From TrEMBL:
Function per UniProt: Non-catalytic component of the TSC-TBC complex, a multiprotein complex that acts as a negative regulator of the canonical mTORC1 complex, an evolutionarily conserved central nutrient sensor that stimulates anabolic reactions and macromolecule biosynthesis to promote cellular biomass generation and growth. The TSC-TBC complex acts as a GTPase-activating protein (GAP) for the small GTPase RHEB, a direct activator of the protein kinase activity of mTORC1.
Pfam families, per database record: RabGAP-TBC
Organism: Capra hircus (Goat)
Rab-GAP TBC domain boundaries: 50-231
Top-level taxon: Eukaryota
GO MF terms, alphabetically ordered: GTPase activator activity; small GTPase binding
Record keywords, A-Z: Cytoplasm, Cytoplasmic vesicle, GTPase activation, Lysosome, Membrane
Principal location class: cytoplasm
Name this protein carries in UniProt: TBC1 domain family member 7
Gene name as annotated: TBC1D7
Signal peptide: none
Location within or outside the cell: Cytoplasm, Cytosol; Cytoplasmic vesicle; Lysosome membrane
Subunit structure: Component of the TSC-TBC complex (also named Rhebulator complex), composed of 2 molecules of TSC1, 2 molecules of TSC2 and 1 molecule of TBC1D7. Interacts with TSC1 (via C-terminal half of the coiled-coil domain).
């Protein structure tokens, strides 16, 4: 029996006896021991399985380009990242743009704006829509990543990925949502259309903010594994599964305003089940895409 077939056999066995994830963790550890990390294999793993929490930050940093594939360079590159973080932070303090009272997520935002050459003249300037997206993602990331340097870099590169790699795809997600909801439950979609709710659904919360502020971070990070590793289309299936999960409630609401308000504040206790079903739905319709939106 070859090494791959042995690994596949063990995966099936562990899953049958209730130890799903044990073999996956071992497989990831093997990938992470390579002298030069294989980006494509890490993407494939992240698309197929949830990342173990102890390795999530490392894998995200590699996939987002914060760290290079070569292990031997990680310590030195992170030292440069920390120095850059400290320099930008110091610059904001010198020009008195931030103080000890400035919330940490706002500090991250102003650091990002300064590095992008888009720092406003004053912190009192009104926020742009893109700033609201950054703050929502940074606030969620704070709950997932303990180290402030890691949190800033991952947030910054995650947002940059949304604005570059997924720039053309994100505006198409509402249409894809409508398409897949129709396939899963045409009656539910008809109800939304009858209430004129399709155009007023919280697409910005779902797709631009990637459900930050909508789902708890414990569920959110499993979705972001897929976004970081190459597919923002997972967001569509999370939205579809939210509608399917709360179908009875949504069908009982008869106005676009009520439907949207409910979907912006869904009960949190169903979130883990929603994400699991959404990932199954995503695999059902899309297989296991790699490097695709």
């Amino acid at each position: 029996m070859t090494e791959d077939s042995q690994r596949n056999f063990r995966s099936v066995y562990y899953e049958k006896v209730g130890f799903r994830g044990v073999e996956e963790k071992k497989s990831l550890e093997i990938l992470l021991k390579d002298d030069r990390l294989d980006i494509e294999k890490l993407c494939t793993f992240s698309q197929r399985f949830p990342l173990p929490s102890m390795y999530r930050a490392l894998v995200w940093k590699v996939l987002l380009g914060i760290l290079p594939p070569h292990h031997e360079s990680h310590a030195q590159v992170m030292m440069y990242r920390k120095e850059q973080y400290s320099d930008v932070l110091h610059a904001l303090e010198v020009i008195r743009f931030i103080s000890d009272a400035t919330p940490q997520v706002e500090v991250y935002l102003y650091m990002h704006r300064l590095e992008s050459g888009k720092l406003p003249r004053s912190p009192s300037f009104p926020l742009e829509p893109e700033d609201e997206v950054f703050l929502a993602i940074a606030k969620a990331m704070e709950e997932m990543v303990e180290d402030s340097v890691d949190c800033y870099w991952i947030t910054r590169c995650f947002v940059n990925q949304l604005n570059s790699k997924y720039r053309d795809t994100l505006p198409q997600l509402p249409k894809a949502f409508e398409q897949y909801l129709n396939l899963e439950d045409s009656r539910l979609l008809s109800h939304l259309k009858a209430c004129c709710a399709v155009s007023t659904l919280p697409y910005e919360l779902w797709f631009k903010k990637c459900f930050a502020g909508c789902l708890p971070e414990s569920s959110l990070q499993r979705i972001w594994d897929k976004v970081v590793s190459g597919s923002c289309k997972i967001l569509v299936f999370v939205a579809v599964e939210i509608l399917l999960t709360f179908k009875i409630k949504v069908m009982a609401l008869n106005s676009a305003e009520k439907i949207t308000k409910f979907l912006e504040n869904i009960p949190q206790d169903s979130s883990d089940a929603i994400v699991s079903k959404a990932i199954d739905l995503w695999h059902k319709h899309c297989g296991t895409p790699v490097h695709s939106a």
